[in-house]
Amino acid sequence: MSQRKTIKVTYQKLGRSGAWGLSEGFGEIFVDEKLRGKKQFEIIIHEMLHELFPALEEKEVEQKAAIMTRTLWKEGFRKIDNHDKDKLQDE
Ligand SMILES: [Zn+2]
What we know:
The chain has helices at 37-52, 58-74, and strands at 8-12, 21-23, 28-32. By secondary structure, the chain is an alpha+beta fold.
């Protein structure tokens, strides 16, 4: 029986490190909190590929992540932001 696994995505400031994302191989990836839309999508896929295929070279990860991003984006996949915890200006 296979075990269900999830890669945890943590958003944080990564500006200083010069990277958009980080993968350390322990089931959690870090994504720059400033990224939005298609670029955020690309970086999440990119870091997941590092987690799942640690032997892949950086260039291969970049190429494969870009192909997956373009294909899924073209197929209409988008993040829905349902965050509603912040009060509106009359609340
Ligand atoms: Zn990389």
